[in-house]
């Protein structure tokens, strides 16, 4: 996929095999370039550094100390907000906030807190850097319309969008995921 010339696409798909993870592993990680702060890790992320062939520095962060062993080149144990606010000199070319809100193991699923965390993350991006958000399950957090408003408020609209999609997820068949990848 040619990221610079990629078409914005918005679609709703039935998800037989966790479409959001498919997108993360097949479209995002192989194409992201430069330094990456990948927030939230799990055992299934242990090979992500290898998939992300264009990433020269794969930094991971998770509030749960037990998952540190799956971390990247550098790993930090902290909440996203505390990490960014106490390291304002650290800037990244890319930040991924995938699977952080609306899940069983989410640190928080607070709507206002989510907006603040995304805003903090934008401040930790280098000029021209990219932010990847989602998947997040909006049912119970915010509606699709509120997601659109949130990203509009943050200025992540129009030609800043590299990818946007809305997918249904097989393990939560009654819920929906929102995925966004945008340039600051
Ligand atoms: C569902 S996993 C997502 C893993 C990975 N980002 C992915 O999508 O492949 C959620 C992980 O993110 C961590 N997490 C959630 N919210 C966080 C926050 N605000 N700061 C740091 N870690 C967080 C949790 O501890 C958990 O290990």
Low-confidence stretches: 1-16
Characterize the biggest β-sheet.
Answer: 8 strands, mixed
What's the alpha carbon Rg, rounded to whole Å?
15 Å
Strand tally is 8
CATH class: Alpha Beta
What general form does the structure show?
A: globular
Relative strand content: 25-35%
CATH superfamily: Vaccinia Virus protein VP39
Instruction: Record the strand order, biggest sheet.
Output: 1-7-8-6-5-2-3-4
CATH architecture: 3-Layer(aba) Sandwich
Walk me through the structure.
There is one protein chain. The protein is an alpha/beta fold and 184 residues long. It has a single domain, classed as Vaccinia Virus protein VP39 (Rossmann fold, 3-Layer(aba) Sandwich), CATH 3.40.50.150. It contains 5 helices and 8 strands. Strands 1-7-8-6-5-2-3-4 form an 8-stranded mixed beta sheet. Strand 7 and strand 8 (172-183) form a beta hairpin. It starts with 11 loop residues before the first strand and ends with a strand. Residues 1-16 have low confidence and may be disordered. The structure holds S-adenosylmethionine. S-adenosylmethionine binds at residues 39-42, 45, 61-64, 67, 79-80, 98-100, 103, 105-107. S-adenosylmethionine is lined by residues 39-42, 45, 61-64, 67, 79-80, 98-100, 103, 105-107.
In brief, what are we looking at here?
The chain has 184 residues and is α/β, with parallel strands linked by helices. The protein is built from 5 helices and 8 strands, in the order E-H-E-H-E-E-H-E-H-E-H-E-E.
